[in-house]
Amino acid sequence: MGTSFGRGGATTFQQDLQNSDCIVIQGSNMAECHPVGFQWVMEAKARGAKVIHVDPRFTRTSALADVHVPLRAGSDIVFLGAIVNHVLSEEKYFRDYLVAYTNAPVILREDFQDTEDLDGVFSGLDEEHRAYDASSWQYEGMHAQAASGHREQGYPRSDGESDRAGEGSEEDSEELTQEARGESHGSGGAGIGEGRPRRDETLGDPRCVFQVLKRHFARYTPELVEEVCGVPRDLFEEVCALVTENSGRDRTTAIAYAVGWTQHTVGVQYIRTAAILQTLLGNIGRPGGGILALRGHASIQGSTDIPTLFNLLPGYIPMPHAHTGPDLDTFVDAEAGKKGYWGDMRAYLVSLLKAYWGPAATEDNDFCFDYLPRLTGSHDTYTTVRNQLEGVCKGYFLMGENPAVGSANARMQRLGMANLDWLVVRDFSLIESATWWKDGPETETGELRTEDIGTEVFFLPAASHTEKDGSFTNTQRMLQWRHKAVESSGDARSDLWFTYHLGRIIREKLAGSADETDRPVLDLTWDYPVHGERAEPEAEAVLAEINGFDAEGRPLSAYTQLKDDGSTACGCWIYCGVYADGVNQAARRKPGKQQNWVAPEWGWAWPANRRILYNRASADPDGRPWSERKALVWWDEEKGEWTGHDIPDFPKERRPDHVPAEDAQGPEALSGTDAFVMQADGKAWLYVPAGLLDGPLPAHYEPQESPFTNPLYRQQRNPVRIVGKPHPANRYQPSGAEPGSEVFPYVATTYRLTEHHTAGGMSRWQPYLSELQPEFFCEISPGLAAERGLEHLGWATIVSARTAIEARVLVTDRMVPLTVQGRAVHQIGLPYHWGPNGYSRGDAANELLHISLDPNVHIQETKALTCDIRPGRRPRGPALLDMLREYRRRAGITEETGTQI
C-alpha cells in the first residue's frame, strides 16, 4: 500500500466499516482472528451492507457473510485481477476520480514491455541475478531517481565522480536486490525522479496507464477464475456485481485482509491488486471504503513504524547502504521526494539524529549521520539463519519470538541456533526456542546431540503487557496507552527495563574509551528517568522523546514543525503530536457518545491523528463531497480551509484550484488536487513505476510449491522471489508438470485459531485455553478422508520435502474440494500454534514449510504449499529420516529442485 498510496498502514479504521455498503474479507478469518474489530462488520451488515468472504476454508467469518467463496490457496491475483478486468471492460470505474487523483492518464516509456509481451515477465529482467532493472517501467518524460546505496544507478562516489550502470561489482548488485526496499515506502511512496510526465486526460493513448492496465488484465476472465481458482463462474459474477454496485459516487466498498495475503512469494502483489481495484472504484480516502491491513498482534503496526526491521529507521526512513562515503545531503537528495511531505525528509532525519545523539549531533559533523549503521545486503530473519549456519552470526537475541516452532522451516531455525556461541531468550515461559538443545526433534532423530551443541543459552523471564506501561499501535495506526496493572513477579522484567539497562551497562564498560568506533554508543542520549526499587525507566519519557522537542525542550505538536537545522529532536516523525502540549494523547479515553463518529479523542493515530488517510479524495476536484451521503472533508470557501468530520489529510489552507509554482518543492509542490500527499506525484498509483522489485503490475505466478502449472504464462513462479543458496535443510518439492510433483498432490495452508496465539508461547501455557483447543489437528474434507483412508479424530502424517508431522484428523465439510484445471484438488488446513512444550503439545505446522520469500518485504510463503497425507502417526527417531529419503527419491528431489528462475 505504500507504493500504491504513499503510506504502508491501513487507509481507514475499523469503526469506519460501519459506513460500508459492501465489505470484502479475503486473506483473513476476521471473525475469529480479529473478533473485536469484526463487530463493525456486523454493524455494517445490520445497516444493509453485503459481506463477502473469500477463503479456502468455511469459517465463522464465512458463516456470518452473505457470500462465501472457496478458492485455491495461492490463486488470489487471478480472482482479484478478474474483478479488475470486469470493472475495466464493463466501464464500472469511477472515471472522474481516476482522472483527478490517479496516474491513469500518465504515459509510459516506449520500451516498457508487459508480461503479456514477454510471456510472464516484465522488461528489464536480469535472470542471472534474479533482479529487474526498472528503468523501462518509468513514465515518459521522467528521469529515474537513484535509491540509497544503488551505485549502479548513478550514486556519487566520495571522489565526486558517479558510478554508472554496470560498474558495481556483481556482489554489490546481488546485495542491493536483497534489501527489502519495499518496506521503506511505509510512509512515503517511492521516488520517481525528476521531470514532468506526459499525460492524456482522455485515457485513450495506448501507452497511458489506463490502457496498459486494460491490456494487462484482459486475460483475467471468469473462465480463468474457474480454471485456476476453482470458483464457479456464477459465484464469481455475483461478487463482481456486489462490489461494483456498491462502489461509486454514492456508495463505497471496503476490503480487509491479513497474512493470508501477505505470506506468499507474491504477497505484495496480492495487496497491489486490491489497491488497483479500490482505486478504480474510487474507494480510497472515503467513508466506508479503503483497505484494512488487519494486524495479528497488538503492535505489529508499531513494530514497523518504529521498526524491529533491519532495513528501516523510525518513520520508514531507509537505512543507508554501506557504499562509498555519501554524506547526509547526498543521502537525502537520493531518498527524499521532490513533491509532497516526503520532500521534508531532511528535517525528519536530522530530528531523528538529534533524538539519538543530542548535543553530540551538530551541523559540523553532519548531525552524526556517520554513526548510523550501514546495510551490507539482507539481514532479515531468514538470512540471519543462513549466517548462523555458515558461522557468520555468533550471537542471537530472541525477544517475543519463538522460531524453533514459529518460523518457516523450523528445523533450519534450530540447526542455526545450534551453531551459535550464545543465545538469549526473553519470554514468559520456557518456550521451544529455549529448550530445543535438549529435547528438539533433531535430538530424537540423532541429527543433533546435546553434548555436541556449543550454544550457551540464557533464559531471562519477561514481564507481560499487564505488568508494564507503554503503548500499542494497532491495526489502524492508532496508539493506545496501557497502564501497568500489577508488578511483575520474581526476576521478570519489562522489555524497556532490559533494553535500557543493557545499554547502560555497555556504556559503563566503554566509559573512557578513546576508540572512535565506540563513540556512537557513548554519545547516545541514554538518560531516561527511572523509578522504584527496580529502576524501571519511565515509559512516558520515551514516548515524549519519540514525539519530539524544540530547542527549548517544549513538546512538538506536529511533524510540520520539524526543522532540518538541528533545532528539533524527534524519535519518529510520523508519531510527532502524540505528546502534544505535554499530554499523553495515546492515553485519551473519551466515550464515543461525547464526540463524532470518527472519535478523534480516543487514543491517537498517526499521522496527525487523522483516521482516514488520503481523505482529500473524499471530495471532488472542486472541494465538494462526491455525495452528501459519503461526505468526510470538504473545502469551506468562507473560512478558506479544509474542514469536516476527520482531520484533513491535506494542507489545511491549500485551495482546490491551487497551482504550485514551477520550481516548488516538497509540500509546496502539491496542487489543490494532489490528494495522495506522500506520493512523489501526489497521485494514487494504479501502475507502479518505481519502488517494487517484482513488477509494476501484479501478475499471477504459482506458489513456490504447487500441483499445477501456470496457465497464464510460461513463467511458473515469481522470477525474482528469494530462495537463497541451496541448502539440504531447505529442499523444495517439484511443482506443476515437473517430474515427481505427483508425490505431493495436496495443497496445505496454515491459519490461526481464536483460542491460541501465534506459535503458542503465551496460550499453550494457559490451562483454560489448552482445554478449549487441546491438540494439533489437520482439517480435511470427507472426500480426502475417503481417498486416503483417514478417520475422524484419528491420526494423520503430513509429509513435505523438509520433514513430516503428525496431527489429529478433523473431517469437515468446511474444507471444500475444488475443481482446478479439470481435476479435483484437496486442501488441508493446519493451525500453526503447536510445539512440544506447554500444557497443550503437538507437532508444529511450520516444520513442513520451506523458506522462499517475497522480494519486496522478505516475508515467507506459508499459506500455500504442497504435501502428502497418510493415515497413522509419523515414524520416530531415524525411521523418520528413512521415510523422508524415500519420499525425496520418489519425487527426484535434490538441493537444486525448485530453485530455478
TrEMBL record:
Main location: other
Residue ranges with Acidic residues bias: 168-177
Chain ranges of the Molybdopterin oxidoreductase domain: 15-429, 460-498
GO BP annotations listed: anaerobic respiration
Cofactor: [4Fe-4S] cluster
Stretches assigned to the Molybdopterin dinucleotide-binding domain: 748-863
Alphabetical keyword list: 4Fe-4S, Iron, Iron-sulfur, Metal-binding, Oxidoreductase
CDD domains in alphabetical order: MopB_CT_Formate-Dh-Na-like
Protein's cellular compartments: Cell envelope
Biased composition (Basic and acidic residues): 149-167, 643-661
UniProt GO molecular function: 4 iron, 4 sulfur cluster binding; electron transfer activity; molybdenum ion binding; molybdopterin cofactor binding; oxidoreductase activity
Family under the similarity heading: Belongs to the prokaryotic molybdopterin-containing oxidoreductase family.
Protein name as it appears in the record: Formate dehydrogenase
Species this chain originates from: Streptomyces carminius
